[in-house]
Each structure stands twice: as structure tokens, then as C-alpha cells.
Amino acid sequence: MEQRVPAMVGRDDEQEQLSAFVTAVGGRALILRGETGIGKSALLDHAVGLATPHHQVIRAAGVEAEAELPYAGLHQLLYPLLAHLSGLDDGHRAVFDVVFGPGQGRTPSVMSLGIAVLDLLALAASSKPLLLVLDDGQWLDASSIEVCGFVGRRLAGGAVKMLITVRSDVASRFDTAALAELAVTALTDQAAERLLDAHHPRLEARTRRIVLEQARGNPLALLELPSYVSGGHAGRPGDELPTLDGIPLSRRLQHVYGMRIQRLDATVRAELLRGALDGVAAGPGTNRAHGVRYRMRDIDEAAAAGLLGTDPLTGDVVFRHPLIRSTIVQLATPNQRRAAHAELARVHHDDIERRARHLAAAQIDPDEEVAAALEAAANSATRRGGAVAAVAWLTRAAELSETSADRSRRLGDAAFIAGHAALLDQARELLRFDSAPGGRSPSPATVVTTAYAALYEDGDIRSAHRQVTAAIEGPHTGHEPAQTLTRLVNLLLAISQYAGDATLWKRARHLTTALGDRLDPRSAIYRDAWSDVVRHGEGVHERVEQAFTASPVLEPWDLSRLAVAAYHADTLSRYRPHLQRAVDQEVETGAVANGMTMLHLIMLDQMAVGEWDDAERTGQRALELTTSHGYTLFAHHTRAYLGLLAALRGQVEHARELQAVVDAWARPRGVGFLTQIADAVGTTAALSEGDHEAAYLHAIGITSPGSFEPYAHQASRTLLDLVEAAVHTGRLQQARLHAQAALDAGLPGISPRLALVTYGALAMTAADDNEAEELHARAETGSAETDFPFELARIRLAHGIRLRHTRGPRTARPLLIRAAEAFDRLGAAGWAERAHAELRATGMPDSASPSYLTALTWQERRIADLAAGGLTNKEIGERMHLSPRTVSSHLYRVFPKLGVASRAALRDALSKRGDEPPSH
């Protein structure tokens, strides 16, 4: 027998839409948005009534008391489903263990956690469709909202629906969640009169008129105001509420509830206060996570007063409306609230973050034990992607510190995290008293914040460098905590990197060397990798790998710094999975500034391995993020990389526009890192359109032939550009000098990319054909084809041109074909055109498919067989001990050899050759 759904007054349209929502095939998400008391919760009850016969219904509610606890709302929503975790794979179980349980490891990104949640929901809905109902969504913590938004946008095609209510007068992240919405507006005059008359049929005319005017179509007001107006407020019947006119409706209703609360016994009020402060839910079905929140006792009097109800699903006591809960808190005195928080801290002694929150609110006087608990909670929140909560708890910990040293240290930690969370104004505010009376020098923690802001907001290299070096050299640095010194050193290295100036780098090396064993080992890696990889890069990639291995769980700033070091050592690809797991979490809920760096690094690796469309999308995302947060340096850094990508693709006009913008901003400020990239954009754009003279002039602006400018990171990166431009402009002596200088400097031993371009440059400049062949073979050795396809294609094109002139067209064709294929696949328009022109010069039309293309290697044949059998790149890689990217690269070569354009055509193409792919 189906449950009877009670009728609602004036909500026919909303009920019809909810009925369509509940009965629609497939998954959906819907937000109900309206003011306080407008009837959103009643509409949720209506939807639950419709769904209950056919759906498993789970209800939850956001509460203000938990708005700073990462994933508290998500835990409440998923708590009844956690029994299904055993049905998930190990990876997804581990994700939930880290977020909700005792699992160790880095908090997953929104995407990783969202995918795990989708799998859990799909499993739970496999036997019966699932309806998730979330009331007061605006009070959910930011982390939970991000995951709910991610999940809600991906429910189509499943058996899960999500229904959320949010207040229209309270901003939240649901405002930008891109979910379908249904606006819940005030009742019409006629509907308001019907509702009032149905529940209060014997109101005298004057009172009825006052209620209708005051309620303005708000259902909760229509139900609650009559008893107040007709004599429930201090015994003055018929008063027209002169003290409430002009006050928002929610405040009027709080006044109504407050009268009922004040009539209660003091012990009952204290019990209600503990429940309200700990987030006891409002509304049925919203308090499902047993043992998590305070359970109120001996509260029959409050229930009789209409303040409480009972959850019909669980039997839990709940507040009838969120306004009741907030009114209870507002009516309590400060001492009453502190006493309630102290009791709740004792109740939650095993929950580090919840206990810390209550301790912070309970304490007035400095208390080191409480301050330490808050500090531990902040560390936990940082690991869980809750930077904002971490800043708040550290700030409170500083206020409760018993010594000035601990207070200063905790304020410094709060400011440091705030800076990395793109909250620079808040970071400055935290340290506003630290610069001190009497002309005392600013503390190191203050310098970290002010110099950081000067660098990233304004690109003020000189000021930032001056402040940081003075702080490191200052007389009190030796008494600072090691962490503060490390922050100063790392900031100095970042400033020096952006400066790209030999003098500043030498000063930085001198200062860091003088620190001796006080220099953090990771800082030494950053210094050697970021400064001058030609002179200090030997062994860096091994040190980076050791650092990652030694610290599997890294703070976001250390992860991004080590990845920058990996970029300079050309081993970034192996660490990109770390970045991709972390970037969404940091961009959305954590260390936003580090998320910007992570996006840059992901883009660089996508460019290196030939994923140029993805790189374009990543760059645009980074540009939006950096500009929206006012990180001007990072914004121009992003434009520089977008300009370089445009130049690679042959979009030379756009590339030069970006080059000009970056150069005009960076050069007057002395941001040499960016001016070097701008020069590299000019070099690449000129090469792309075949203007080798212009390319040569740009390249020698970065470094002179035969040398690698000290502390110029683009000097080694433009090695191939300078040599190739010199060869094509008849400057063979300069070309040979530069290629030989690379070999003499030991570049092949520093990274696989430098080995590739060094031997490729030597092959281009070799006077002897046999020597050129040998050097080209050395360039081809290794994994360069999958890791650096653009550089390898350029080297093949150059060698193919040489072979055409020295050994004839037939010998040159295989290399030219492979170069043309690579340029076509990458979208390097200018280079592809040049390669096809060379192919035509061999007598081969563009449409020809010579026998060379049809010959598969054993490895290519095996990969093709497995792909034709339906295996994914990941599955093929696991069988053949290859990375999925390597498998993809092989398939790119297999397709044109077999004359097909997709995996679906592989089986037929292989069978025509006489072999069926093996079954598996």
C-alpha cells in the first residue's frame, strides 16, 4: 500500500515538478532555492513521500556548527551507505578511509573522491533506486559541497537522485554548482489566506490582517505568528508588532521562538543549547550518523512547546526548524555557550577536529593545552584540504598561546597557510602588529608574508629579495624555528628563480651555503634544480626521486616545489599523477596558489609529451584562476606558456601578442624567468614559420653560441633552436660550437631530454655522414619518442633532409614519414607543412602509403592485437609492462601503418593480413 502524501496549499506547480523529478527515468540532481520558512523542507517531505515506496531515501542536513569541518556534511549524507564499502575496489575504499577514517595518506582530489562516491552510490542503488535528500545545503562545509556538486552533475544514466535545499539569502558554493534549480517563492495572497484559515480558523479579523501583512506569503510565518500576535507575546493582545516592523522575517520568527524557549526550565535550555551547538539536526531523517553528535536528554518540555520533533525513520530527536536551533544559541549568554562547548569537548575527546572547535569556543584565558589541540586540528585540516579552517584554528591557537613566542609562531603559520590559500589580505591582517614599535625590524614570519605578496601580486623582485635576504642575515634568525628559516630560504629561491639573474642567484647560493646543516635537504634540491641545471643539475633527478620516496605524503607547497625541480631535470612526467591527484583539491578547497603552480606543471608536461589540446585547456584554466585571485605574476607566467604553445602550433600572430604582453610587464620588473620564455616564444614562432634568421637572433638573445648563460633556464631549453637556426642560416661554425659546448658541459648526463637534443644537435652539425648517422642513432635511443615527440620529430626531419641530399630519396623517406606523422598528430602546422614538402621532394605524394608504413614491429603487432581484442591502454600496459602513454604512442604509429583511423577497425585490418587477434 502506497504512502499517502498530504496536500499542500498553493504549491501545485512545485509538487508537479517534484513528481516529475521523482518519477523520471535515470539520475538527476535538483536544488530548491528560497527564503527561510518558505516551505522548502515541506516540499522535501512531499518528495520523500512520493519516493518512499520505490526508493531508498537518505536524508541529511547542513548545520552552521559544522560549516568549517571538512567533509562533515558528506559523512552525514553517506553514513547509512558505508556498509557498501566492502563492494568497492581497494583504491576507492582507501579514498573513503583517508577522508572518513583513520587511513593515512594525502586527501584525495574532488575528482578522485567524487568518482569514489559515484561508485558507492551506484552500488547502493543496484537493488533499489536511491534518493539523497539534503536540507539546508548552504551550511555544508566547502569540501562536501564541492563533492556533492561534482556528483550531482554526473548522475545522469544511473539510479540515484539528489534533492537539495538552499536559502536564497545565504551565499554558498552551491550557487555555482551548475545544478538544475527550482525557485520556491512566496505564496499568492489567496493561497496565504487559505493556509492561515486552515490552521487558525477562528482568528479575529484584525489579527488575521496583521498576520497576513507581516507574513507576506511565507508559510512558516503564517503558521507561527498568529499565537504571538493574538497574545502570546508578553500578554498584549492585538499589538501590531511595532518592535518588529522593518525587521527581516527570519528575525521576527526568531523572536516568536525565543518566547517559547525562555519559558523553559534552565536545565532544559542548557540541554537544547548543547544540541544546537553540536549540530543536532532540524527536520526528519537528518540525524542519521549515530554517535557523531550530542544526544539530548530529558527534553519533553521542549517537545511539548513545539520546538522539537521526532525523526520517523530513526527515532532521533530533532529541532523542528533550523531557526529554532539558531535562536537557542542567540538567546544563551556567553558564559552559557562556553560551558556548553566545554561539555561538548569532553564528549568528543576522540575527534581531534570537533574537540578542538569546542575547546576553542569554551576557552577565554590563554591555555597551552587548548592551543596545541587547535594546532593539531589545523594540521589535520590542511592535510584534508581545509585551508580556511586551518587558518581559523591557528589564529585561535595564537590567541590562546601562553607565550609570545608560541603566539608569534602560530600567527606566522596561519599567515603562511593563508598566503598559499590565496588569502593574502587575511595573511597580512594576521601579522599587522608584528612589525612592532620603536622601529624594530619585522619578524621573519612577517617577511615571509609581505615578500610573498610583493612577488606574486606585483612581481616586485627587488623589494621581495631585499626583505628576505635581510631577514636571513638578521641577528635573530638563528633563534627562529627551523620551519621559519626554511620558509624564508624557499621564498628566496623562488624570488631568485623568477629573477633569472646571475648576481641574485650567486647571493642566494652564498647565503644557503653559509647555513650549513641548517639548510633543509629539500631546499638544497630546489636551489640546484631551479638555478642553473647546466652547472648544478647533475644528480638532481635522483635526489627528487628520493625526496618523493622518503615523503609519500607531502604538503601542497612541497609537492609543487619538488615537481618544479623535476621539470628542470626533465623528469616531470613520472610525477604528473601526484599533481593531478592534488590539483583539484588545492584549487577548490586548499592551497590555491600551489594549485596554480600545479596547473602550470601539468600544462608543461602535456606540452612535452604532445598532449597539446589538453595543454591548451589546462592553460586556460590556470589563466582564469590566476587572474581571478589577483596573482599577477602567475597570470603572466600562464600567458608565457600559452604563447609558447601557440608558437609550437604555428599560431604565430597569437603567440607574438602574448609574447609582447608578457615582455612588456616582466622586463621593467626584472622578471628574467618570464623574459626568457618570451624570447623563447619569439624563437619558436620564427622557426614555426621558417624564418630562421629571426629565430637565430631571438635565440642568441637568450645565450651566445658556444656557451650557456649562467642561471638562464632557457639557455639549455633552446639548444636545438639555436643550432637549427644557425645551420639554416649558414652559420655552421656557430652551430657546431654550440652543439659541442652542450656535450662538453655534460648535458646528456643531466636528463633524457638534454641527451636527445644534444645528440640531435651534434648530428645536425656533423661534417661526416657516418658520424651524423651514429649521433642520430644515439639521439633515437631511449624513451624520447613517447616523452618528447616534438623534439624527436624535429631531429628526424633534419636527418631526413640530410639523407635525401647525401644518400637519396628512398633512404630519407622513412624518417621523413615518421616526422610528418608526428607533426600532424601534434598539430604543429608549420613543421608538418615543411615535412610534407620534404616528402614530396623525395617523389612521394602526400597520399602515398609506402611499404615501410605497413611493416609492424613485434611490439606494435602485439599491442594492435590486444587493442583489437578490446583491452584498454591501461590493461595493455599492465600485460606488456608499459605505461599507458607508451601504448598510446605505439597505437598512433600502428593506425597509419594499417590504414585505419580507430581501434574499432583494427580487427578487420589485422585479419586481412592473415592473422586473427588472440582471444583473452
Automatic annotation (TrEMBL):
One of its GO terms (cellular component) is cytoplasm. InterPro entries: AAA_16 (IPR041664), P-loop_NTPase (IPR027417), Sig_transdc_resp-reg_C-effctor (IPR016032), Tscrpt_reg_LuxR_C (IPR000792), WH-like_DNA-bd_sf (IPR036388). Keywords: ATP-binding, Nucleotide-binding. One of its GO terms (molecular function) is DNA binding. Residues 849-914 form the HTH luxR-type domain. GO terms for biological process: regulation of DNA-templated transcription. CDD domains: LuxR_C_like. This is LuxR family transcriptional regulator. It comes from Streptosporangium carneum.
